[in-house]
């Protein structure tokens, strides 16, 4: 009965006139969101929303992602995705160093994403790698999937928020574990630090070209030029976002505040006294401010809208419903990802792309343990029957 109902809903939405009306509604909603932000918060928030919309379009059109590209890196020796991600970081390094005030003019923006080398980063990145393989997508990938009409990615996002809230409540525990001091390549070495980040990215790119193909593979991995095009555009958009927001692109804090605000409104007032709020300049006042007072929820919502608009324009928006097993794994993977991202200062965007673009050494620590988690997650997928 449920499958029949799902099919009827899909057929209804797929009807030509309904599809067109939906597309018009999404354009109107996107435009209305931009206007609302301009009226309520000013032009910077409105410009951030436009940037977020563009990010969503690029992620969809170029099929840019992390979970699948990392999985085929381990299973097929296909390093295309990793090379595209390193290209993004290398292109953003010098502009980020300039905007952070460490070379030339600029201001101290990106320093906000320079973190200490903590136990939480190692554990959290490992958990994130496992979670995104079980769930089938990383945080940004779940947003892209949800924007194309998938219900499973929405379940993953809900799990992500839940896991992040649980980890936020336990922030004091993770803050007390052993940690090494932070290290900023830009702050310590200036332009040479930016060149060092670029050089390390090139080394990773070259190393990925030497990966052996699996014994059962008779053909080389497919080349996906769209990933490189996406990396170039995303590097530009991340620079624009940094200049507008005065902090690098991130997702975790926006979703965490969304969950925390919801619990607070529902009457869970103890959340106001969590140590978690010590990482914010405004502290627990973030609970009482407007929903879009911060930058991360603005870019996350606008990215989702951008994916929807792009998917509808391409005729690729389609409601899809997963089975019970797929939903359970997506929820579980989301919870694991959310918990891991919270204790490691971010997901693959905040603690990998943005961290390395900002010249923070913790990005390399996060990447290493996320790879370890991915290797475990790939094995776990076989155990639960997702892969053969």
Automatic annotation (TrEMBL):
The keyword Transport applies. It comes from the Bacteria. The chain crosses the membrane at residues 21-41, 47-70, 82-101, 121-144, 151-169, 189-213, 225-245, 297-315, 327-345, 365-384. InterPro entries: Sulf_transp_TsuA/YedE (IPR007272). It is a multi-pass membrane protein. Keywords: Cell inner membrane, Cell membrane, Membrane, Transmembrane, Transmembrane helix, Transport. The keyword S-adenosyl-L-methionine does not apply. Pfam families: Sulf_transp. Its main location: membrane. It is found in: Cell inner membrane. Belongs to the TsuA/YedE (TC 9.B.102) family. This is YeeE/YedE family protein. It comes from Candidatus Doriopsillibacter californiensis.
């Amino acid at each position: 009965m449920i499958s029949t109902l799902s099919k009827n809903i899909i057929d209804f939405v797929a009807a030509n006139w309904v599809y067109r009306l939906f597309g018009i509604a999404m354009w109107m909603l996107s435009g209305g969101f931009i206007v609302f932000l301009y009226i309520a918060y000013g032009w910077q928030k409105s410009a951030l929303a436009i940037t977020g919309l563009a990010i969503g379009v690029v992620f969809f059109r170029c099929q840019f992602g992390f979970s699948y590209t990392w999985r085929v890196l381990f299973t097929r020796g296909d390093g295309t995705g990793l090379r595209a991600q390193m290209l993004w970081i290398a292109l953003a390094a010098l502009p980020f160093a300039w905007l952070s005030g460490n070379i030339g003019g600029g201001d101290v923006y990106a320093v906000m994403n320079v973190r200490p080398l903590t136990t939480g980063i190692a554990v959290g990145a490992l958990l994130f790698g496992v979670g995104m393989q079980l769930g089938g997508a990383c945080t940004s990938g779940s947003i892209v999937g949800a924007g194309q009409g998938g219900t499973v990615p929405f379940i993953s996002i809900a799990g992500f928020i839940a896991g992040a809230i649980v980890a936020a409540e336990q922030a004091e525990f993770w803050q007390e574990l052993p940690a090494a001091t932070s290290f900023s390549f830009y702050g310590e070495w200036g332009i040479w630090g930016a060149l060092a980040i670029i050089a390390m990215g090139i080394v990773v790119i070259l190393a990925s070209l030497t990966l052996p193909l699996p014994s059962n593979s008779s053909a080389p991995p497919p080349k996906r030029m769209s990933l490189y095009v996406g990396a170039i555009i995303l590097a530009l958009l991340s620079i624009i976002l940094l200049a507008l927001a005065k902090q690098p692109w991130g997702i975790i804090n926006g979703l965490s505040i969304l969950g925390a605000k919801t619990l607070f409104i529902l009457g869970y007032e103890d959340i106001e006294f969590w140590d978690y709020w010590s990482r914010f300049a405004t502290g627990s006042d973030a609970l009482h401010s407007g929903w879009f007072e911060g930058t991360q929820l603005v870019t996350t919502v606008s990215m989702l809208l951008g994916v929807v608009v792009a998917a509808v324009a391409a005729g690729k928006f389609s409601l899809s419903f997963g089975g019970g097993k797929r939903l359970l794994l997506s929820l579980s993977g989301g919870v694991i990802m959310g918990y891991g991202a919270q204790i490691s200062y971010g997901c693959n965007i905040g603690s990998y792309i943005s961290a390395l673009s900002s010249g923070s050494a913790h990005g390399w620590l996060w990447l290493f343990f996320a790879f370890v988690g991915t290797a475990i997650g790939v094995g776990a997928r076989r155990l639960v029957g997702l892969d053969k």
